[in-house]
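Researcher: Let's do a round of design. I'm pasting the structure tokens now; please hold your answer until I've finished.
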């Protein structure tokens, strides 16, 4: 049985007077996370990453979502695509699987969240922020090792040893993952309460140039099942 959507007022600690850096992929989860940060009172600044992914539509979606929800700023960090080879999301000769697989799937991008968080951490220091927010999830997450609570806790501990703001500033840096233990239906229902327009988002691993989803990959399957279980109309645009 799906639990009721979480109270947006308690999804994150009170952010009044605080700045948050929100990692925004353009997908359903990160859009919900941004809405939660804004609802909690944070001045949210978003960052997306161009790491050589096969389709560009998710970067356009991130820009749309950031603007629509009212983030303070949005930036795109361009990374060397060669550093992320070996994934179905970046390599043209590796097909995106359309059936569930055992173990960590080929859509895993090596060290992606570690690298993304490191860049976001630098951005936070520049902005005077001690709050990083991201939409990782340990329920509907395809088995990616860098989406687990243990990873988030370890990175937070490292960040508080590695940055001047943490060592001299007197306030610990916090990494918030408010979706960590929510199923996709709970995420969809919670975002709907906050007015998230999921029609702006792109979650598909192999979306076309217009952002239309394939409807067959793991990400499409989790997304579709989430809307169905939440009893909310799915605004996803699918390829013919």
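Researcher: That's everything. Go ahead.
Model: Designed sequence:
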């Amino acid at each position: 049985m799906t639990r009721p959507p979480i109270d947006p007022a308690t999804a994150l600690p009170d952010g009044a007077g605080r700045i948050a850096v929100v990692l925004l992929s353009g997908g359903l989860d990160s859009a919900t996370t941004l809405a939660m940060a804004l609802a909690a009172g944070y001045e949210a600044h978003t960052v997306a990453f161009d790491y050589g992914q096969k389709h560009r539509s998710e970067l356009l979606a991130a820009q749309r979502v950031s603007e629509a929800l009212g983030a303070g700023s949005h930036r795109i960090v361009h990374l060397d695509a060669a550093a992320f080879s070996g994934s179905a999301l970046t390599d043209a000769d590796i097909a995106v699987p359309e059936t569930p697989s055992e173990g960590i799937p080929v859509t895993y991008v090596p060290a992606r969240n570690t690298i993304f968080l490191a860049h976001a951490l630098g951005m936070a220091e520049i902005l005077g922020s001690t709050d990083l927010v991201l939409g990782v999830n340990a329920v509907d997450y395809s088995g990616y090792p860098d989406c687990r609570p243990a990873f988030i806790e370890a990175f937070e501990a490292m960040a508080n040893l590695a940055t001047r703001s943490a060592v001299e500033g007197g306030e610990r840096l916090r990494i918030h993952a408010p979706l960590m233990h929510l199923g996709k239906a709970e995420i969809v229902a919670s975002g709907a309460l906050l007015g998230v327009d999921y029609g702006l988002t792109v979650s598909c691993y192999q979306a076309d140039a217009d952002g239309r989803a394939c409807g067959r990959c793991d990400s499409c399957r989790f997304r579709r099942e989430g809307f169905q279980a939440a009893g909310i109309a799915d605004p996803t645009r699918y390829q013919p």
